[in-house]
Amino acid sequence: MDSPARIEVRGLTMRVGGEVVQRDLDFEVAAGQIFAVIGDGGSGRSLLLRHMAGLHRPAAGDVLYDGESFWGGAEPDRERLKHRFGILFQGAVLVSEMTLLENVALKLRLNTTLSDQEADEVAALKLAIMGLRGYEQRYPSQVSEGVRIRAALARATSLDPDILFFDDPSALLDPLNSRRVDDIILGLRDATGATIVLVSHELPSIFALADDALFLDAEKKTMIARGRPEALRDHCPDPKVRAFLTRGRS
Amino acid sequence: MNAAAPPTVSVSRDGGAAVVRLSGTWSLRDGLHPVDEVTQALEAQPPPQRLRLDAAALERWDTSLVVFLARVHDSCSEREVGLDTSGLPQAARRLLELARQGAVLEGGSQRALADRSRRERRGAERGPEPWTESIGWWAIHSFRSLGGKLDFLGSTVVSCVRMLLGRTRRLRTRFLHLLQQAGVETLPVVALMGFAIGAVLALITTGQLEKLGATPLVARIVSIAVLREMGALMVGIAIAGRLGAAIAAEIASMVAYREVDVLRVVGVDPFDYLVAPRVLALAIAGPLLVVYANVLGLLGGLFVGVTAVGLPAEEYIERTRAVLTQKHMLAGLIKGLAFGVVTGLVAAYYGLNSGRTAGAVGWAVRRAVVAAVVGVVLSDAAITLVFKWVRL
């Protein structure tokens, strides 16, 4: 696979409707890491993901991929970088009028020279890797939330991106399906070496997956902690972070 | 910068084993690599006992390599030739294992998949399904569908009765809002259509009556046509198009966003909250809109009669009043009531029975509008026949 990417966020300030959501965010994501963005409600976790994935322009600051500026670059350069990204949106949004196979194959048909038949073959393989063989001709409305999320993961990885952004993939899932999605994410990272940025508030997933984590504070409007989730839980000087990671039991 | 080496496959023989050497850069953007060389090696005589994959010279790779490996895996399985993947990168081996492992299906899906496989096998053995079986399935499906519709109708009637008896008092404000939406907000469309229909009818009939020298009859013909048929039918079409679409979209969106589930959970019957108020609002608004449309239709006829035909206004009004009988007006009002009820029922039915996806809202609106328009036209024909029979 391509060598895994390294992400640098430098002096990032995010605004929505003139109001600052987070300011002065500075952190790096090492190559091949699973990096969790955590924080209390309204702290802008999903918004940070959108800024990093190039879906939202920052009020200030930049995001660098392998040292290459994303927001400082020209539009064609940004488009080229975006081809390295795979995104799983919150709620695993799939196009309801397409089968799962068509949902996964769409990106392949639009971005490669594969014939329709070849794109379908690759899409079927991606679904099989997610444990969804036999679901190819189902529509999103005919399958459970867990299956939809795995199909959305298959779509996000259809072009073999080396940077993956996952927005709350385990939300609304039962513990078993949540665990299965965690296993798939770990398997993806191990098999492909992709760098994964994960927004989640599911503590079991955070502890099972994340090599590194960042805590965003909604009141202070900036990051207040950074480190391995276990280290933050046990040793973070900020009680809010410890409380978050222990469900208020610290 | 050196260009990436293209993906290459070379096959050789090492005793009883076929050795497939993979090299170069494998990328989806360059397309998929065929497995012809591997298939030929598997079909060589004597056939190999196993196939060994060697990726020592492999540079970069992505899913295109995994697709190739999956094809090789399937070819070996078909011919019962062992596959040695130890020479592959660990990540590629793991992806191949994941792709070729059994499907992780949920309980119901496992059964559905097994049923489908059984059906396909049976179909392959027995040939196409006999036409008698197709008719049987159609009849069963239609019967089930009819059952669902009757159930919906029954629940709506019960909710309407509860509402009329005042047992859903807390929903009164909502009902008044719906009545306003169905009635007052539809007035401009109905006014425009009513006036235009009256005027067009007057113009068309005048052209024909002039040939017979009976131009003054235009007032009589326009009045009867508007009162008995055109006013009500036009209101029916306006209700079906405007309100049918709005009701179906509103309820289908609530289904899609699970608001209907929330209503059930908090103890509100969706028929009481969503269906009955809308059906009753349309049942009341329908006849009132017909009266309004009739007035505008008659005014449209009067306008053309006076300005284009040259009839004195007093004479036109006098001839119109002569046909303004109770039975003509009653016929229009009954039709307005029927069209309102039909549209309300059809739109609410398709809204409530839509799916939980974004596309489901469009589906519900499309089905509701088509069914409501067809329902309006068919009920118009049926009511006209009944009126003829009872001499109304």
What does this protein structure show overall?
The complex is a heterodimer of chains A (250) and B (392). With 250 residues, chain A is of the alpha/beta class. Helix content of chain A is 37%, strand content 24%. A 6-stranded mixed beta sheet of chain A has the order 6-7-8-3-9-10, sandwiched between helices. In chain A, strand 9 and strand 10 form a beta hairpin. In chain A, helix 3 packs parallel to helix 5, helix 6 runs parallel beside helix 7 and helix 8 packs across helix 9. The longest helix of chain A has 18 residues. The radius of gyration of chain A is 18 Å and the shape is globular. The relative contact order of chain A is 0.18. About 2% of the residues of chain B have low confidence. Chain B is an alpha/beta fold. Chain B has 13 helices and 4 strands. At the A-B interface, helix 4 and helix 6 of A face helix 2, helix 3 and helix 13 of B.
Features:
heterodimer, A: alpha/beta, 6-stranded mixed beta sheet, B: 392 residues, alpha/beta, 4 strands
Which sequence of strands runs across the widest sheet of chain A? Answer: 6-7-8-3-9-10
Largest sheet of chain A: 6 strands, mixed
Query: What is the 3D form of chain A?
Result: globular
Total count of strands of chain B: 4
| Residue windows where pLDDT falls under 50 for at least 5 positions of chain A | none
The chain-level structural class of chain A is alpha/beta
Number of helices of chain A: 9
**What oligomeric assembly is this protein in?**
heterodimer
Helicity range of chain B = over 70%
SSE ordering of chain A: EEEHEEHEHHHEHEHEEHH
Question: What string, H for helix and E for strand, traces the elements of chain B in order?
Answer: EEHEHEHHHHHHHHHHH
What fraction of the residues of chain B are assigned to beta strands by DSSP? 5-15%
Taking all Cα atoms into account, the compactness measure Rg of chain B is 35 Å
Radius of gyration of chain A: 18 Å
Write down the overall mean pLDDT of chain A: 89
Tell me roughly what share of residues is in helical segments of chain A: 25-40%
Number of helices in the DSSP assignment of chain B: 13
Greatest interface by residues involved: A-B, 37 and 34 residues
Strand order of the largest sheet of chain B: 1-2-3-4
Task: Pick out the low-confidence regions of chain B.
Answer: 103-109
Query: Describe the biggest sheet of chain B?
Result: 4 strands, mixed
